[in-house]
Amino acid sequence: MWNLLYRLASPPHFYKLAAGMIPWFAVSGLLAVAYGAYAGLFIAPPDYQQGDAFRIIYVHVPSAYLSMMAYVIMATGAGIGLIWRMKLAHAVAAAAAPLGAWFTFLALVTGSIWGRPMWGTWWEWGDPRLTSELVMLFLYFGYIALRGAIDDTAKADRASAVLALVGAVNVPIIHFSVEWWSSLHQGPTLIREGGPAIDSAMLYPLLAMILGFTLLFGALLLRRVRTEVLYRERRTKWVREMILSTPGNYL
Amino acid sequence: MGAYGAYVWSCFVLTAIVFLICEWRARRRQRQVYRDIEVRVKALGGCQ
After folding, report:
1. Is B8 within 8 Å of A99 when comparing Cβ atoms?
2. Distance between CA atoms of A221 and A223, rounded to whole angstroms?
3. Which residue in chain B is spatially nearest to A111 when comparing CA positions?
């Protein structure tokens, strides 16, 4: 088991393995998103209260879920890198941050666009879900800025790892904010006691979108981690040999 | 889609744009890093 993990975490092995995995993640993700978007936009019936505006759920919920998942991946990678000094873990954390920031931005903007017709406002500062999600965007910015400000990769890894771990406290706050405090935001729809509070005609496209977004995120993350690994290992023998044997073949 | 069409479609289009930006930036960075290393390795004649 440990041997397998060590082998997977070896940069040259991961670099080759990830290259083979990216197309599978991308193609299956695109298929799931194509089905989810078509069914969500054209097959699912309008909501009895929100009408067609509810269809924003098909991009808003997967984006919001990915914004938190990316932070969990980043904090886990940072923690593993900090404790066990695993190079690949820091590379994963560094690669997850920009993606997490993009999906947090997307969740905030699509939520704001959804809020306008439903709540009558683009933004509500008193809402804990909105505010804690915005805090997460700033945590991503802080993490990226901190990494960028330190030239030495090892020092940047350690300093940013501490920030990522401290900021991880915000993830459960985002998730439970709608239960802990009074919020404009609706409560949990999928993961709740008594099962999902949504009809199957609306649920299946949503699950397909969540799966598709996750797979596409996986493809993007793998591509970014490969680049991080390549950059960190640029002075090693295996990178030199690979470059010389496959010149110009950066994919 | 009725009165909500603009809200719904703008969200879907924005999502597609974000995915495309993420993919483009990831590829651009990968190409940049690979080429930088390639130039350095070739300049050193493959033996460091």
Report:
1. no
2. 5
3. B11
Distance from CA of B1 to the nearest CA of A (A): 6
Smallest Cβ–Cβ distance between B41 and the set A52, A98, A243 belongs to A243
Beta-bridge mates of residue A209: none
Mutate to test the interface with A, among B34, B38, B39, B42 (most CBs of A within 10 A): B34
Which residues does B42 contact at the CB level (< 8 Å), separation at least 6?
A247
Per-residue pLDDT tens digits of chain A, which is 251 residues long: 677 777 777 888 999 999 999 999 999 999 999 999 999 999 999 888 888 999 999 999 999 999 999 999 999 999 999 998 888 999 999 999 999 999 999 999 999 999 999 988 898 888 889 999 999 999 999 999 999 999 999 999 999 999 999 999 888 988 888 777 777 777 777 777 777 778 888 999 999 999 999 999 999 999 999 999 999 999 899 998 888 887 666 66
Rounded-to-integer distance, Cα B26 and Cα A159, Å: 24
